[in-house]
Amino acid sequence: MTSDQAPALEATELTVQYPSTDKAALNRVSMIVPSGAFYAVLGPNGSGKSTLLRALLGMVPSVGGETRVSGRAVSDWKRRDLAREVGVVAQAESLAFPLTVRDLVGMGRYPYLKPLQSETSTDRAAVKRAMERCDVWELGHRFVSTLSGGELQRARVARALAQEPRVLVLDEPTASLDIRHEMEILELLRSSADGGMTIFLITHHLDHAARFADRVLLLDRGSVAAEGAPREVLRESTLQEVYQWPVSVDDDPDTGILRVTPQSGSYRSLGSASSNRVR
Fold first, then answer.
1. How many CB atoms neighbour CB 246 within 10 A?
2. Domain residue spans in the chain?
3. Alpha carbon distance 169, 279 (integer Å)
4. What are 108-147's pLDDT values in tens digits?
5. Cα separation of 245 and 239, whole Å?
């Protein structure tokens, strides 16, 4: 990110509490996602990862703090303009009517079309590029209802890429994917970040964050446990305290890539956990 370029996504003291709950889902969370970065969000189940994504995009109201997209408060964005700026792959969705894969991916061009306007050659080219990048071009004629979970997920990523956004936000996009397509999607996201697109990825896979991300945010029960470069965040003491399970962190001897390995046994066997967390 250059000095004159606003962060792609930003939260300041963000607090979210759902109705009829006595505890905040997010408690004064602050983070800055530099433009063009691959930013991964980690944390146990219920730590607030998906809530953070929805709050950043104005999909759930906050009770404190603020969020900004490309330097503007999210509330100042018109929804069509925001859809051009940010592509989203949510954790799950339901489709109300039958669609082919080509139709689904083509929906990514809606922010660029006027009511009742047909696709232009520019739109068709964007859709084809996205489908080819996600290896679903040959599935274009298939109805979405006939796809496997992995095929559907790749089609949903293609739809977001067809928007040609500057920021791509994804919630567990490699769930249901086999190893090949999982790695192809992650390498696609990495290359997209290298090309200038901002990637905001929610994942449970610590190794994926270590391998692909520039920066990592680790959430614990709605609060920031650690934030920074992968090697600053993915430390044994920090991970063991947050996940309540023993892990080892080392470098793969063949690749030098940081590797996180769960260990056998119970967190309780570690004795008193260190309270030193990277802030």
1. 18
2. 9-227
3. 24
4. 999 999 887 899 999 999 999 999 999 999 999 999 999 9
5. 8
Model confidence pLDDT, tens digit, residues 152-195 = 999 999 999 999 999 999 999 998 789 999 999 999 999 999 99
- Share the mean pLDDT of the chain: 92
| Token representation of residue 205 | 């896979």
Q: How far is CA 249 from CA 7, 29, 69, 102, in A?
A: 30, 26, 34, 43
pLDDT tens-place string over residues 26-38: 999 999 999 999 9
Q: Pull the structure tokens for residue 139.
A: 């599935």
Beta bridge pairs of residue 250 = 259
More confident residue, 216 or 278: 216
At 157 the pLDDT is: 94
Q: What is the DSSP string of the chain?
A: --TTS--SEEEEEEEE--TT-SS-SEEEEEEEE-TT-EEEEE--TTSSHHHHHHHHTTSS--SEEEEEETTEEGGGS-HHHHHHHEEEE-S----SS--BHHHHHHGGGGGGS-TTPPP-HHHHHHHHHHHHHTT-GGGTTSBGGGS-HHHHHHHHHHHHHHT--SEEEEESTTTT--HHHHHHHHHHHHHHHHTT-EEEEE-S-HHHHHHH-SEEEEEETTEEEEEESHHHH--HHHHHHHHSS-EEEEE-TTT--EEEEE-SS-GGGG-SPP-----
Quick one: average pLDDT of 83-91? 94
| CATH 3.40.50.300, domain 9-227, yes or no | yes
Q: Which amino acid is at 155?
A: A
